[in-house]
Amino acid sequence: MATNADRIIEMLQAAGVERLFGMPGGGSNADLIEAAGNLGLPFSLAHTETASAFMACAQAEITGKPGACLATLGPGAASLMNGIAHAHLDRVPLFVLTDCLGEPGAQVMRHQALRHGEMFSTVVKWSARPAPGEIVETLDCALEAVLSFPPGPVHLDLSTEVTSSCGANTLDLVAPAILSPVRSPAARPPALPGIGEGTIPPDFHQLLRASRHPVFLIGLGAKSRPTATAIREVCERLGIPALVTYKAKGVVPDRHPWFGGVFTNAALESNVLDRADLFVAIGLDPVELLPRPWKFRQPLISISGWPMEPSQIPVELELVGDVVSSVHTVAACLTESHWESVELLRLVEKQRERMRPALPNPTGSALLPHRVVELVAEAYPGVRATVDAGAHMFPVMTLWPAEEPSGVLISNGLSTMGFALPAAIGAALLAPSRPIVVFTGDGGLLMCAGELRTAARERLPLRIIVFQDNELSLIKIKQEQRGYRTDGVSIGEIDWRWVANGFGVRADDALTETHLRSSLHQTADHPGPVLIAAKISAGTYAATMRALRG
């Protein structure tokens, strides 16, 4: 007979989960891995629990379907927290499966015993610790919760008494959710009425008709391919610039004639936004923006799959429901804009030039961060990139030419370090023959260095570019801006070639542009992961930060 572990794996497969990730312990983890093997759901070992969540999240962002990760009880569950927090703030659908003590043991044992549901309560949409006879109802609820808006993680705390139990042979995944163990799943937003002018109040209909310089602000809720296609069609037909958040890079490609730059609620994009007379936000979530006051006075209309939190962005009209239909509805009320594509291209190029500053005191042939980005883009055109948090993020996110939705993966709402390498592993496992570029700092890579072994074991074609300056540059800049000592930010010299080789990863150093070009060329056909430690000068980071944020 089928066990409850089988039913859980069947539920994950029904939701579209491609692969299960984790650093397992015993108990229910073993039951789930065995069931996954029997039912054809691949399992990949990570070397930290947080990394397993990042791997699962990367697959979810790319496929638009939930990811899944598991961890053992106690320390394993605690180590998942940063990955779950990323899924929460970056709006990623994720199943989190933790082992726990069965009811008899939980009443008398304290070893490794934590209240996982309470620990995760601020970062999951829903959590449950079912008894063996509650599994069907619980899985219905889990499925409903993970598919509801806004996307985010859900949690199942599972003892081996639950996963090893047998019951009915079928799992009814269509039955309505009838159990709410911690909190009810968020209701799905109602779909908008049919396409047409009747969905927009008359005064806003007039506002749209009168606009001559509208701008689209594209966010993470617009990453589906149908939405991206609709946005590009409207931009091209009406001549409307589109700015993308970090999470929406590629929805309108960087080389598209109506690409208006990267939108962060900062200074760099102001040369376009200041010319606008109307903003139409599509899939924009305030969690994507820098936490600073909204300075713009232009009216803003929001189109999204879920209601926007109004505390940061003053929305005057909100269309909640089917995003593609809403885009066409708004477009039907707009007239051809007065924007000129040549002018827009000039404005965007000015943004990029500000991300290419010269060293204040140039010495020799120093390797500059922005040149690293440009040379890697030349060597690997059109590939997906993952980006870690840090000072290198500023030139990467402005200069890397994304070509498709989720063409760049980044932790933006949480902005955590240690994300890029695990995310690249998750992404690469969806298409193992397609190279992926990993942009990381030396500090961020130290947080997840064990995943170099994961990349080598899976023989994934990752190109790991380490911006090596031997310090936490972004924190150092912030200390200097406040007149503080630069304490606690020095990493020291690391021989990344030796480290990478120890994990089975091919590696090289690059001290100059010539050396970097050569390394990229010589390793281009290598079938597994390659690490290139680009020994950069950090002297331009302060200028790029000022250019971006003002």
Structure description:
With 550 residues, this protein is α/β, with parallel strands linked by helices. Helix content is 37%, strand content 15%. It has 23 helices and 18 strands. The strands form three sheets. The protein has a six-stranded parallel β-sheet with strand order 2-1-3-4-6-5. A six-stranded parallel β-sheet has the order 9-8-7-10-11-12. The chain has a six-stranded parallel β-sheet with strand order 14-13-15-16-18-17, sandwiched between helices. Mean pLDDT is 90; it is low at 169-198.
Q: What's the β-strand tally?
A: 18
Mean residue pLDDT: 90
Biggest sheet, spatial arrangement of strands = 2-1-3-4-6-5
Structural class by sheet pairing and helices? alpha/beta
Please describe the biggest sheet, giving its number of strands, its sense, and whether it closes into a barrel: 6 strands, parallel
Low-confidence stretches: 169-198
The oligomeric state is single chain
Shape: globular
**End-to-end distance:** 64 Å
Task: Provide the β-strand percentage band.
Answer: 15-25%
Q: Report helical residue fraction.
A: 25-40%
Number of H- or I-type helical stretches: 23
Radius of gyration: 24 Å
How are the SSEs ordered, and which strands pair?
Elements: H1 4-15, E1 20-23, H2 28-39, E2 43-45, H3 49-63, E3 67-71, H4 75-79, H5 81-89, E4 94-99, H6 103-108, H7 116-119, E5 126-128, H8 135-147, E6 153-158, H9 160-163, H10 202-210, E7 214-218, H11 225-238, E8 242-244, E9 259-262, H12 270-273, E10 278-282, E11 300-304, E12 317-320, H13 323-333, H14 341-354, H15 369-379, E13 384-387, H16 393-399, E14 408-410, H17 420-428, E15 436-441, H18 442-446, H19 451-457, E16 462-468, H20 473-481, H21 496-502, E17 506-510, H22 513-522, E18 530-535, H23 541-549
Parallel strand pairs: 1-2, 1-3, 3-4, 4-6, 5-6, 7-8, 7-10, 8-9, 10-11, 11-12, 13-14, 13-15, 15-16, 16-18, 17-18
Helix pairs in contact: 1-2, 1-8, 3-5, 3-17, 11-13, 15-22
